[in-house]
Amino acid sequence: MLRINRENLRKSHQAPWLIVDIFMLVLLLINLAWLVFDTLYSTASMQNLLSEYLPAVYHGYKPVHENFLLIDLVFIAIFLTEFCIRWVVSVVNKEHLRWYFFPVLHWYDIVGLIPLGFTRLFRFLRIFSILHRLHKFEIIDLNRTRTYRFFAFYYDVFVEELSDRIVVKILADIQQDVKKGSPLIDKITREVLAPRRPVLTQWVAGVMQHMGSTLSDNDQGSVIREHVKQSVGKAVKNNQQFNNLSYLPVVGKSIEKTLEQTITDIVTASLINLLSDVSDERINEFIQSGVQGYAPKTDALDKEVLQVVDECFDLVKAHVSQQRWKDHLSGKTQTMPMPDVNEHPADPDKR
């Protein structure tokens, strides 16, 4: 049930307009009821019915029906005056960016002022305009009414179903273009990824510099240094010339271990210097000098990338196609209180 919030009414300074709205609403209902009755009165069956059962009403309303347009012009004059007043107030209060926005946004009021049969039906929309204005200032709360919640729910269902189908259709078209080898992938590479290469190279340089500083740390770089030591030791053992040092009497083993440790330190220091000195400019130079012109056969990789993109589209389409309004509806059904069978036990005397 609609209730007027007096506190919000006082803060919004809409009390005079509320009185005008109530007056216009009553006048509008009278006008619409009169239009319906006059339309029915113009039919022969209604005239025969009134002349037989209510002759006084039939003869008394006949001059009103004959002057229908003149009387309707009185309602139109009142509606037009109220519309012009609201237009002036809207311009004074600067409710819109342009002075002519008000009649554009309230086009149905202008159409309803045209004294034609079908255009008079647009006067009915003024009821919703008045209710919307009161709801906007929180003078009334339409969310508490079942009628509003009913239409709002099915409006959301309609919009969701329509938008989901449009989005799924667009994604399906894009998916088909990608499968057919659309130049979209090449455009993404040239126009999206290529301009951002400086950012990517800067990020790679930062990562490599961080790895270099981590490797130089005694605690954090111990794992990498141990791996380097094992790799150097394995390479030394596989080198025949280096193994010949072990045959030297007395000092052979010592020289071998010393050289192995020295090589490990040199390799580790080289890695630290290489990673620490890396910059985005050097990465760009490396890409231009070493990578440019390299065109391996990447058919398998391209197929895998396209397969990943295709599966991503399928997941997005499945997510979009979910009818969330059904979940909302089933959730409301589950939260409805179940009747208690023990609340009204049967009277044993009435058995």
From TrEMBL:
Main location: membrane
Region (Disordered): 326-351
Cellular localisation: Membrane
Membrane topology per record: Multi-pass membrane protein
Swiss-Prot/TrEMBL keywords: Membrane, Transmembrane, Transmembrane helix
TM stretches of this protein: 15-37, 68-88, 100-122
UniProt xrefs under SUPFAM superfamilies: Voltage-gated potassium channels
Superkingdom classification of source: Bacteria
InterPro entries on file: Volt_channel_dom_sf (IPR027359)
Biased composition, class Basic and acidic residues, residue ranges: 341-351
Record bears the keyword Ligase: no
UniProt protein name: Ion transporter
Organism: Salinimonas profundi
Lineage: Bacteria, Pseudomonadati, Pseudomonadota, Gammaproteobacteria, Alteromonadales
